[in-house]
Amino acid sequence: MSVPNPSVKVSCRGLWKIFGPRPELARERAEEGLDKAQILETTGHVIAVRDVSFHVEEGEIFVVMGLSGSGKSTLIRCICRLVEPTYGQILVDGQDVTAMDEGRLRELRRHRMSMVFQHFGLFPHRRVIDNVAFGLEIRGMAKEERYRRAREVLELVGLQGWELYYPQELSGGMQQRVGLARALAVDPAIMLFDEPFSALDPLIRREMQDELLKLQQVMHKTLIFITHDFLEAVKLGDRIAVMRDGELVQVGTPEEIVAHPVDEYVQAFTVDAPRAKVLDVASVMHPAAESGLPSNPAPYTVAPHTKLEKAIPLLVQEGRPLLVVNEQEHPVGYVDWKAVLTALGGA
Amino acid sequence: MVPTSSVSPPETPRRNTLLRYLAGFWALILASYALAWANVPLDRFPDTWYLGLREPIDAFQAWVIGHRATHPAFVYFFEPLSDAIDWALRGVEGQLLSLPWYVVVAFFFLVALHAGGLRTALVAGAMLLYMGLVGLWAESMQTLALMGVSVLLSLAVGMPLGIWAARDDRVDALLRPVLDTMQTMPAFVYLIPVLLFFGVARVPAAVATVIYALPPAIRLTNLGLRQVPRAALEAAESFGATPRQVLFKVQLPLAMPALMAGINQTIMMALGIVVIAALIGAGGLGREVLIALQRQQVGRGVEAGLAIVALAILLDRVGESLSRQVATLPGQRTRWRGFALLPQSWIRFAWARAIEEGLRRLGQGLLASARVLARLLGWPLGNQAQSYLVRHAYAVGSLALLLVLTGGGAVTGWRGFPPGWSLDLRTGVDAAVVWMRDNLYQLGDLPIGTGPLSDAITLYLIVPLRQALLRTPWPALVALAGLLGYRLGSWRLAWTGMGLLVGIGLLGMWDKGMDTLSQVLIAVLITVALGVPLGIWAGRSQWGHLILRPILDVLQTIPSFVFLVPVIMLFNVGRVPGIIASVLYALPPVVRLTDLGIRQVAHETLEAAVSFGSTSRQLLLKVQLPLAMPTILMGLNQTVMMVLAMVIIAGLVGGAGLGLEAVIGLAKNQTGRGVEAGLAIVFMAMWLDRLTQAWAERWKPPRGTA
Ligand SMILES: Nc1ncnc2c1ncn2[C@@H]1O[C@H](COP(=O)(O)OP(=O)(O)O)[C@@H](O)[C@H]1O
Ligand SMILES: [Mg+2]
């Protein structure tokens, strides 16, 4: 590898996780080109994560999505070694997590990384405040201090007043707020989310997503977020990685994925996406280099990153193609109805 | 969007027809008879195959007795251990007996009051009073001490082992078969080897109790820790908790309900062994029952038996309410108890409110005076100490009360249970026994009464079955065991069963074993014939459930041998009382599990059946019973094991067979004989246990793979 990019927070190189007694056999099969099902059939090994590499930049929300069973949970657990990776490297701030001994790993988990779980993973025998203070307690922080910090975080997630309740007395949404608060309390640089909102009602889910985005605006943490819901991925993700059968099939910004899915699997996810909200004009325009420019453009122009939902009213109003111009006001292409409709039709 | 592979049903295993088995079985029988007819002696297990375990064991015992004072194993291990246990037993017993009786009563009352409320406290008090009233205070305290020490030791050994097993799968895999085997073994089996190493008296009784009560302590600790949701463990780990922190901050607190259940079961197991422990000189209540059984003093036996039941109820109720308190997750517990003493629901009565108000004032007054007193002593109570006192007001108050009572006892010299307070049950019971013997044994010349019933069971069930088992050539029986094993389970089960049966023969216990087997089968048959219909009734009618539940609850807290006392007064000695007592003892699990099995059937399933127009009968036969079958068969398994546990006790009242052999071995200190009989019972237990479990397993609906 070349000189590490200082803004890369987490990176994964050639990561494999194979469940079974003799992973080397399964890996051989995999390198011969057999797929997950065939390998399970012939060797009884489950290839949960298959040769995955990616980088996550500092302050980024990196979303991993895929169908259930595609290896998302295993992947995210490998990052903090709740699941021991079989092959490959995981670097956090340039340090190899896979090479850490017990003590260093514990340090990493206590101070730099925390996780929010799909089914909350709260401790039913501890009051809300003791749940939130758990990570601090584990570090050995004194009671007064950790309670003070826990109260702060509870306020941040809007749960002040619930300190003395037990988690099971709270609604699902509130329980996940506790889970979030517990992860925030240790003030980690990196947060891992394993489908944190999947178990919640759609309305609550949306509320939590908004809240997470709002928090992120002030926190600027590095988030790795797992979901199987493409809308959620599009809404939260700066970049999205799509997984299938343990492999990353595509990594890119939401626009790239919606506009140019690499295969049918990825495209199937994008069908339900609110394309007008995701796609920008740059990804659907007729580039000037190929198609030239229209003879009678509308009097308005749009910037390349304008979302289609903003451009469509202008098209309606004018009935003429819109020029797309770059920062130097130089036209780079144009959009007309044909371009928009083709993109919205999911081509 | 995702390729789904087409689903074809996996091949179903071919079912072997019953007919083929039957044909095989008859062929074997005929072959054996043919051999017998050709003068090959097959009706008796060959004497020449006898292993002769008895002699080396007796020789070993003689060696042990000779070397007890000199051999290092004894000097440095068994004797010090024995001394330590003896010291603990004496200490606890001495304490219990030197405390004034009412302090003991008050202690249990206060604990029960705190844990379970006034009802539990009154029950606890009444149970202790009963022990004093029938003149068995000292014996009861002896038994209580034996139990207390044994249970503590069991937990001290069992819990760490359970924790270890929960954290290390290899340890678990190692322990599991051992515990499984231990749990199929009747209590007395442990007495024999223990006798060898610890001699006769209460120490071996305590050791045997500890070992016997160990499996639930280990098992439930293990289970409790393993049941802790993975999510909670994972979360703890993800925050960097050390294994130790995970154990103490997450696993143990969450495993508390199971731990408490384990403690409760450990106590009940320990109670189950007290009479048997009396066989080797443990003293206490068990000895009373034993003497009464041997001398056929029914009244005395009833008094002592009820004292054991009282002890069982006391420990069960207090233990259960304690565990319920710990087991309820904090969030579900009422966070505020308005009433300190009386049930909260009595709040509508003015007098109840007045009493509670008085108590509250009293508490405040005491606290205030403690504050004043402390200040006078120049030792003012800090805020922390005060809040501590307030939070633990109950414990502090109770302790103070107990101390005052003890002090009062020392001043007044009242200690033993007042002799003037007595409850005479035995005269009445003995009179009743005489009356029953005269009147119930047979009603005039009619064939009605316990006498004719006993005769009928003997004549039409026991004798024919025993004769059949003894007359059938032994290879045919062994083959039958194999066939049964194969049909219900696998080849492995078949070989195991055959091996175990042959083992009984090799121990020289074939005839006695068949005698016992016939009694066991009959007891199981009667139990099932009574229990399943009762269970169906309880499962299908709310009334049945309501009526049977309290009865079963009581039956289940009664240690096995206590059933013998009333039974011998009706049926005399012989094989029948043992069988009847076994039936009573083993009835609750069948009824309970049948009831449970039927109630577990999903409501939707029933609705579906009804919507197709099922009659109530069709509902039972086509839906409820088949679905309840695995649970009912689990009940059968428990029944068989309980009946087997009764075998030795039945031996005490003339049950003959292996039980009698074991009793004689124990009582006459003929260890070799006891070991042979004991092993034979263990073999039979292992065989029947596996067989019934395999049967239950077969009935389980196939599990989905999705
Ligand atoms: N402990 C395990 N042992 C064996 N197979 C596992 C284990 N955990 C997960 N798997 C398998 O690995 C694959 C990926 O699982 P997972 O990471 O949970 O997927 P996702 O979170 O995307 O639903 C699945 O096929 C699953 O069955
Ligand atoms: Mg998952």
Cα end-to-end separation of chain A: 37 Å
* End-to-end separation of chain B: 20 Å
Strand content of chain B: under 5%
Radius of gyration of chain B: 29 Å
The CATH architecture of the largest domain in chain B can be named as Orthogonal Bundle
Mean pLDDT of chain A: 89
What fraction of residues of chain A sit in β-strands? 15-25%
Quickly give the CATH architecture of the largest domain in chain A. 3-Layer(aba) Sandwich
Query: Main sheet of chain A: which strands, in order across?
Result: 6-7-8-3-9-10
CATH homologous superfamily of the largest domain in chain A, by name? Answer: P-loop containing nucleotide triphosphate hydrolases
Please work out how many helical segments of chain A DSSP would assign: 17
Number of helices of chain B: 28
**What's the CATH C level of the largest domain in chain A?**
Alpha Beta
Rounded mean pLDDT score of chain B: 81
Tally the structural domains of chain A: 2
Helix content, binned percent of chain B = over 70%
Features:
heterodimer; A: alpha/beta; Rossmann fold; 2 domains; B: mainly alpha; MetI-like fold; disordered N terminus; binds adenosine-5'-diphosphate; binds magnesium ion
Written description of the protein model:
The complex is a heterodimer of chains A (347) and B (706). Chain A is α/β, with parallel strands linked by helices and 347 residues long. Chain A has 2 domains: 8-112 and 188-273, Rossmann fold (3-Layer(aba) Sandwich); 277-344, CBS-domain (Roll). Helix content of chain A is 41%, strand content 22%. Chain A is built from 17 helices and 14 strands. In chain A, the strands form 3 sheets. Chain A has a 6-stranded mixed β-sheet with strand order 6-7-8-3-9-10, sandwiched between helices. In chain A, a hairpin with a 5-residue loop joins strand 13 (322-325) and strand 14 (331-335). In chain A, helix 1 (23-31) packs across helix 2. The longest helix of chain A has 18 residues, at 202-219. The two termini of chain A are 37 Å apart. Chain B is mostly helical. Chain B folds into 3 domains: 21-50 and 447-698, MetI-like (MetI-like fold, Orthogonal Bundle); 72-330, MetI-like fold; 357-414, no CATH class. Helix content of chain B is 78%, strand content 0%. In chain B, helix 21 packs antiparallel against helix 22. The two termini of chain B are 20 Å apart. Mean pLDDT of chain B is 81; it is low at 1-5 and 331-336. Chain A binds chain B through residues 37, 67, 80, 82, 105-111, 114-115, 117, 119-125, 127, 134-135, 137-139, 165-169, 182, 186, 192, 264-265, 268, and chain B through 1-2, 5, 229, 231-232, 234-242, 245, 249-250, 253-254, 256, 329-332. The complex binds adenosine-5'-diphosphate and magnesium ion. The site of adenosine-5'-diphosphate has 11 residues of chain A, from strand 2 and helix 3.
